[in-house]
Amino acid sequence: MEITHRISFGKLDKVDSLLDSLKVKYRKTAGLHGSYLITFEMNESDPRWPEIRNLVQQKNGLDLFQTQFSAKEILGAEWLRVIPWFEHGYPQPEDTWVTSPINYAEVCSECGTYRQVSNYRIKAEPRLGKHDFMNLTWCYDLFCTPAVLSDLRDHHIFGYEVWDAILHKTNLPAQTISQLYIPAIAGPGLTRVDDLTQKQCPKCHIAKYFPHMKGILYFQRQAVVPGVDIMLSYEWFGDGHAAYREIIISNRLARLILEKKWKGVKLKVVELV
Question: Are residues 57 and 97 in the same domain?
Fold first, then answer.
């Protein structure tokens, strides 16, 4: 497991000379009126990290971080999270979807929790390049290619439904992608949450956790839905109006993703306790 930080400082932070003395390679992006932005990445295993961590705290630098797991760690985990990262296109109708999503019901206008009741509509067939999975901007739901669906069927992966993505102008199903709709929702089971910020919505009273970025996510074993390879967490995550449930998959499905070298998602370890 490696935790990677993407750090940013501005000109007024005056960190250039210290970063140079530590031989940190950074990118400097020019801004208006002589300003600039410094950005770089560093792993916590780097011996320079303690000094950089202190610098971030002193200067209030922007610190965005992610946890990377090795193939060995992924293969050794019973369950994992799937993180969609190839974002392409917008749900339709784009101009009104954020305030009035036509494929959602029970939407909370305060925290953004929802229930999907019908197909997503998209503007056009997406250009996936070499990606096998994608998600739409504003959405966390997972879409994949026909080749992925074929392999899921051949390997007897259970727990999903195939929902068409509808081309908005023609009302015809897209040919390049379909949604992997996940009906199974785990029981309440998120545990060891001392490092997670939780906020209860004043309107719908659902508790939502700030996105989990660091380390392993822990769930109680009793929360797992039996007989499926893919399910959603009972708990909601997100910041502001963004809301999503974590996508949790079995070791069997994770192995298939690695074996096929499918692109468009990242895998993060879940530990059952």
Answer: no
Q: Which domain holds residue 213?
A: 73-272
> Dihedral angle at the C-alpha atoms of 184, 189, 192, 197, nearest 10 degrees?
70
Q: Where a domain ends, among 68, 87, 114? A: 68
Tokens representing residue 192 in the block: 């060891």
Q: Are residues 8 and 91 in the same domain?
A: no
- The amino acid at residue 226 is P
207-209 β-sheet, strand order: 190-191, 217-219, 265-272, 79-84, 244-250, 230-237, 207-209, 198-200
Tokens 């893919």 map to which residue?
Answer: 230
* 166, 167, 172, 173 alpha-carbon torsion, rounded to 10°: -50
Structural domains in the chain (count):
2
What is the residue whose two structure tokens read 């784009």? 94
pTM for this entry: 0.87
For the chain, the distance separating the N- and C-terminal CA atoms, rounded to the nearest angstrom, is: 19
What confidence tens digit (pLDDT) does each residue in 93-143 have?
999 999 999 999 999 999 999 999 999 999 999 999 999 999 999 999 999
